[in-house]
Write a structure and sequence with these properties.
This protein is α/β, with parallel strands linked by helices. The chain folds into 2 domains: 2-54 and 224-314 and 500-559, FAD/NAD(P)-binding domain, CATH 3.50.50; 68-105 and 168-222 and 320-495, 2-Layer Sandwich (Glucose Oxidase, domain 3), CATH 3.30.560. The protein is 24% helix and 21% strand. The chain has helices at residues 2-13, 26-34, 65-68, 123-133, 140-150, 179-189, 223-231, 282-292, 298-303, 345-356, 445-460, 482-492, 544-559, and strands at residues 16-22, 43-46, 86-87, 100-101, 151-153, 167-171, 205-208, 210-211, 213-214, 219-220, 237-240, 243-251, 254-262, 265-279, 295-296, 310-311, 323-331, 368-372, 385-390, 406-413, 421-423, 434-436, 469-474, 494-495, 527-529. Strands 1, 2, 11, 12, 13, 14 and 25 form a 7-stranded mixed beta sheet that branches. Strands 7, 17, 18, 19, 20, 23 and 24 form a 7-stranded antiparallel beta sheet that branches. The structure holds flavin-adenine dinucleotide. Flavin-adenine dinucleotide binds at residues 22-28, 46-49, 77, 102-105, 109-111, 113-117, 119, 243-245, 280-283, 285, 289, 497-498, 531-532, 542-545, 547. Flavin-adenine dinucleotide (FAD) is lined by residues 22-28, 46-49, 77, 102-105, 109-111, 113-117, 119, 243-245, 280-283, 285, 289, 497-498, 531-532, 542-545, 547. Residues 104-127, 282-296 form the Glucose-methanol-choline oxidoreductase N-terminal domain. It comes from Oikopleura dioica.
Length: 580
């Protein structure tokens, strides 16, 4: 393996690629595909982790099942085989807890580890991004066609959905449990609207949460399956896995390539030449790689022994995330998916999936969800709270098996005001950075999450849940007043796994801008960043779909294509004088 790596890396070092893409995750796989489509440009994709490639056994089924079986998603959160396994520093406002931040380290990146929920966020997110970076071609009317170009919705396309893109998107089955329907009905009874497409005209409301699952195979559709594998046969695309990029190489401020080494052996360094370097290493590693290459706050770089090259104080700043809590009730026997998490049912559904690619294992089990506004407030003109409903329990990132029949609402706020930062610990590129999200440093964020818990309780109290709802087990009866709920929130809040915005795209006269609206690193030449780190502000939903759309849009910028545009596509306007 190591011998092969050396040979492949040495071969790669003999060429000069038009583009070297660092990171084969959600964004990197999109670019690897789009930039090689024309056949005339050469691309090298570098990925620190191993391949996710499904190995076929004699039955022709997937052996690498912990990635590709949708319901197996928790397995890879327990070890570092495909995972960078990051932790934050202790968070003083959240009982000094250190938060576990898994991130994909494998082809497909975090799209190989994530919960597969397909949510684009709200049109207002992209309109805000366009204002924040001063370029209208990042607004909703320009981004919608990129969401559509990426998507292959299982029922075909319409004004909002794509029907023939590479990314398979389906809606999970409601068959295994009555709880999904009950949750949506409870939302309607509580006075909220129902939405037929949470990614379409109306995000606000209760409805089905689609997922990035290929319904034909019953498999996770990460970006390696969607974008990379179809491009692998192209002669102008090379891929090196298990390849850690230590730093970017420069001639003064012009990027000329990267220095790489085997992920498990830092001793042998190889230099790769590039016409342009594109970082797609994600919200932790892209800023880390810029910093290790001397691009960042010059004083801070010097203090850890890195020679500054470009003083760019925004690198690693503006770090944003979503926090959520899980409100949970016991339910009556047979209603939840509890039995499927234990033998013999667990084996039975596993066998069904291996033989047919169908059944409970072919879904992510977050098939219903909602977006609501926390209060009537002219400033909150689109939903600021998201629900994922799970007819089962996730405990400690799936590291503990449930012991009872229960259901959960994962409820979180979408536009917290506390922003964090990421800094180097040392000048060793393999040291994890110091990650400080500064959760709850803005005084409004904790009360906002407390309000979200109270709204969740109100929804679970509706008639539609009567026949399914037993006692609330978490937080439980003893947490009633705002201050009691706040104490529980501090004990229980978890990341929704959405770090982002740490190399923000912004206006060129903003000193904290890291990349301009063409994704080019300020002050550098031939160097771009394209991934979730460049979001100017966090999207109001999950981040895989918006990251893919960003990469689709960036691929056209890099190729010099005119931006796609769907002017005046209608979007639901909330009545901000009412909460629901
Ligand atoms: C557990 C979990 C659950 C989630 N659930 C959902 C969900 O249900 N729905 C949703 O939309 N979003 C979800 N997300 C978030 C979403 O998946 C990510 O925001 C998105 O995938 C980020 O894409 P990216 O391209 O920025 O980074 P990534 O996909 O993380 O890709 C970065 C890639 O770069 C590689 N890399 C990094 N550094 C180097 C280096 N120095 N050299 C070489 N390679 C390097 C990494 O190994 C990785 O493959 C979840 C995330 C996690 C971790």
């Amino acid at each position: 393996m190591l011998f092969n790596w050396k040979r492949a890396a040495t071969q790669a070092a003999k060429k000069t690629y038009d583009y070297v893409i660092v990171g084969g995750g959600s964004a990197g796989c999109v670019l690897a595909n789009r930039l090689t489509e024309c056949g005339s440009k050469s691309v090298l994709l570098l990925e620190a982790g191993p391949s996710d490639v499904p190995v076929h056994n004699k039955l022709g089924k997937l052996i690498n099942w912990t990635i590709h079986m949708p319901s197996a998603m928790m397995y890879n959160l327990n070890h570092d085989k495909y995972n960078w396994f990051y932790h934050t520093v202790p968070q003083p406002n959240v009982n000094n807890r250190k938060f576990y931040w898994p991130r994909g380290r494998v082809l497909g990146g975090s799209s190989s580890l994530n919960a597969m929920v397909y949510v684009r966020g709200h049109a207002e997110d992209q309109n805000r991004w366009a204002r924040e970076c001063g370029d209208e071609t990042w607004n909703y009317d320009h981004m919608l066609p990129y969401f559509k170009r990426a998507q292959c919705f299982y029922k075909g396309g319409d004004l909002y959905r794509g029907g023939d893109g590479p990314l398979h998107v389906t809606e999970g089955s409601f068959e295994a449990t009555p709880l999904f329907d009950a949750f949506i009905e409870a939302g309607v009874q509580a006075g909220y609207p129902k939405s037929d497409d949470l990614n379409g005209f109306q995000q606000e409301g209760f409805g089905r949460l689609p997922c990035t699952v290929n319904i034909n195979e019953g498999t996770r559709w990460n970006t390696a399956s969607a974008y990379l594998r179809p491009a692998l046969k192209r002669e102008n695309l090379d891929v090196l896995t298990s390849t850690f990029t230590d730093k970017i190489l420069f001639n003064r401020t012009t990027a000329t390539g990267v220095q790489i080494s085997h992920f498990k052996r830092a001793d042998k360094k190889v230099e790769i030449n590039a016409g342009e370097v594109i970082l797609c290493s994600g919200a932790i590693n892209s800023p880390q790689l810029l910093l290790q290459s001397g691009i960042g706050n010059a004083d801070e770089l010097k203090s850890v022994g890195v020679e500054p090259r470009i003083n760019l104080p925004g690198v690693g700043e503006n770090l944003q995330d979503h926090l959520e809590v899980y409100v949970q009730h016991k339910t009556t026997r047979g209603k939840s998916l509890y039995k499927y998490q234990h033998i013999p049912w667990m084996q039975a559904i596993g066998v069904q999936w291996f033989l047919q690619g169908k059944g409970v294992c072919a879904g992510n089990q977050m098939h219903a969800g909602a977006f609501i506004r926390s209060r009537a407030d002219p400033e909150i003109n689109h939903p600021d709270i998201q629900f994922h409903f799970l007819p089962s329990q996730v405990i400690d990132h799936g590291r503990t098996l449930p012991k009872e029949e229960a259901f959960q609402a994962h409820v979180g706020t979408l536009r917290a005001k506390s922003f964090g930062s990421l800094k180097l610990k040392s000048n060793n590129p393999r040291d994890h950075p110091v990650i400080d999200p500064r959760y709850f440093t803005d005084p409004v964020d904790l009360p906002d999450l407390v309000a979200a818990v109270k709204l969740t309780r109100e929804i679970f109290a509706q008639k539609a849940m009567d026949e399914h709802r037993l006692e609330e087990i978490i937080p439980g009866k003893k947490y009633q007043s705002d201050s009691e709920i706040a104490e529980w929130v501090k004990e229980a809040a978890e990341t929704a796994y959405h770090p982002s915005c740490s190399a923000k795209m912004g206006k060129e006269d903003d000193p904290m801008t890291v990349v301009n609206s063409k994704c080019m690193v300020m002050g550098a030449q031939n160097l771009r960043v394209v991934d979730s780190s460049i979001m100017p502000s966090v999207a109001s939903g999950n981040l895989n779909a918006p990251t893919i759309a960003i990469a689709e849009r960036a691929s056209d910028i890099i190729r010099g294509f005119e931006p796609l545009h769907m002017p005046n596509t209608p979007v639901f306007k909330s009545d901000t004088s009412k909460q629901r």
